[in-house]
């Protein structure tokens, strides 16, 4: 008899809320989340989500398909609010907690979010934009501070709310998440992911790593990230597994102690963490106590040297994968069994196809470099209110990623270059055009171009080249201060180089290759 497939139940579910309801029925007393010193079990978590769902629908009047934006740090409040929105038939809009008020205002307004859930740490930013965002009907705080307007207290909203599932007709084709990504240029766009997109990706990813109810997944990457939502939250919830995360990473040693104490079996992180571990190792006392059976790396490229040294020091398989928000997000991963090829991002997960195409849209043979395209049930519905961008990105069922890659004779995918101009800082996407637009708004800036410079510890950092109009810009320091008003900290240029003029080609376009050459990479 073949081994039982724990992901078969996930594939049969019609919605994410139904998936969680079933896991709570099967594993009511099993721990779902370990957040710092608190433990939340499946049955109480499901009741919290149900109370959220009733409050959203019956008290706040959220209708099917309307948006619920969540601006919260890692914690059970984030998870319960998201699950409650799924059960209410609403679309979750996870907000990057590093963004400034203007950046948050844009996403909330563009998405048409009806409700914003936040907390005390973000109250000043929310107050700065909540009053002039017409779509917002309600502000809910899980803390005590006023968010502006008619702020509702979470504890009052859910007090007395029914703890049973609302039983709403939410299906696989219904919108579940709108996650904002800039693609390769311009302002962020909302990638629309359905319940079916996420359920299929959870099931396929779970099969690839053979996750089961006895697993416990440790992570400290932010919950607003698409990778975290699928791999660290929904995938464990689908099988009754546990998740271990700090609300805020105060120290690496403390997090390692939590992994030991809560018996973590899987760790999911970004390359920067594995680079640190490859250089420093882990505390001597933790080595015989850790029960990790695998580690998974995503969100940015992992060097072959880091992978080799990590596995030598830690003696745990490290699997590198690849994905993007538009694909829910996992596309491929190096196999747990069989050959793991350093320098590749592995094999496509079950049910997902990957192709390599020429600039003219023709499929290319094995070994040839071209644009990576993805086809499968994990591919987004499209970009919210952007039919042109959707049509450009999804063609004949294939989602064209903008990444350059190749597939070898064994089917392993290698990413040779990333989306044009995009910078990866600590696994976070930084889009040069967004920074350039902020610099161009400064009255003293005549020209601006941003490129990435390699950094040993952070992957890449943004560097801006500018030419000025007269003396009014206040130099490089003045421009950095200007950027701080409009951009999240990780997007602010690490260095600003002032030139008399920027190099341009015959067509008048700034030649970024010449600017990169100045960095000496």
Radius of gyration: 23 Å
Distance between the termini: 56 Å
Q: Give average pLDDT, whole number.
A: 91
Query: What's the number of extended β-strand segments?
Result: 27
Number of helices: 16
The portion of residues forming beta strands comes to 15-25%
Poorly predicted segments = none
What does this structure look like?
This protein has 521 residues and is an alpha/beta fold. It contains 16 helices and 27 strands. A 9-stranded mixed β-sheet has the order 2-1-11-10-12-13-14-15-16, sandwiched between helices. The protein has a 5-stranded parallel β-sheet with strand order 4-3-5-6-7, sandwiched between helices. Helix 3 (42-59) crosses helix 4 (76-87).
Topology:
Elements lengths: L7 H5 L3 H11 L4 E5 L2 E4 H18 L7 E4 L5 H12 L3 E4 L6 H11 L3 E4 L4 H8 L7 E4 L9 E3 H5 L16 E7 L7 E6 H15 L6 E3 L7 H14 L2 E4 L6 H10 L4 E4 L1 H10 L13 E4 L6 H11 L3 E6 L6 E4 L13 E2 L4 E5 L12 E6 L6 E2 L3 H7 E2 L2 E10 L5 E5 L5 E3 L2 E3 L1 H9 L4 E11 L3 E10 L6 H12 L8 E4 L13 H8 L2
Parallel strand pairs: 1-11, 3-4, 3-5, 5-6, 6-7, 10-11, 10-12, 12-13, 13-14, 26-27
Antiparallel strand pairs: 1-2, 8-9, 9-19, 14-15, 15-16, 17-18, 18-21, 20-21, 21-22, 23-24, 25-26
